[in-house]
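User: Hello, can you help with two protein structures?

Assistant: Certainly.
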Amino acid sequence: MRLRHGRKRHSRCRSCLLPEAACGRKLIVRQILGDENFRIKMIEQGVFPGISLTLICGRKNHPCLISTGDNKIMMDSNTAEQIYVTAE
């Protein structure tokens, strides 16, 4: 599957933005961009570097739904595009 920017959706990404990862994959958060307030907000929601999560659905310029254990979090595209992940 190709994304609008011409790159393929990553099934095993070294490090990619959350919306670029393949849906249904287990991922590990590697880095969260943005200012300190944004990173604190993500930590409060349980999303921080090192945590394992599953991208339930999402793609570039669309909301993403993730699962972190028992929690499910819906985030807008701007938020999701500030999170770098790798395949588990």
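That covers the first. Now for the second protein you mentioned:
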Amino acid sequence: MIPASPFGSVAIIWSAMGGRSAQSHHPKIVHVLLSKPGLSAEHRVERLYPRASISSCVEIDDIIVGIIGMLQGEAVMFSLDGVDLNLCGEFQQRVLRATHRIPRGRVDTYRLIAERLGIAGGARAVGNALANNPFPLIVPCHRVIRSDRTPGGYWGGLHMKTALLEREGICLDDGGRVQCAPGFMMNCYKG
């Protein structure tokens, strides 16, 4: 649990995968739970994982440090090796992998991700896959926006999504639109 972030608490639900010996212990994250206005990550844990216990290990501690840094605006890139993508269907895995490749300081659109995955007209399907992203921040779905350059939805709320984008150098205009030209992996640096 990350209790003191600028956006409320963040909970990491993980499980030890592998064999019984300490050498084969491989922690895998099964869910990253964000707080949103009116619903804390702690309450989400109580509801979704009532038998969860508080625990950690070196690998999870490293991810927590990375998440804290990211929430404070640091440039952090997470590996997908620490998450259990097998909990997601094949299509969602493809969307999450594509989203994971979006670098800090850039955004992409739901439509363009769908097109690159070979699903013309699949923007809504990509949006649904990201709305159910079990690994927000690790898979930076806050970097995916609508084609009209508005931010779109985010589990942690619009304020969190826009704040994360701004901390990564993305400018938004007075109407809340990302200031950049449409295109693949849109460059939206302040400048």
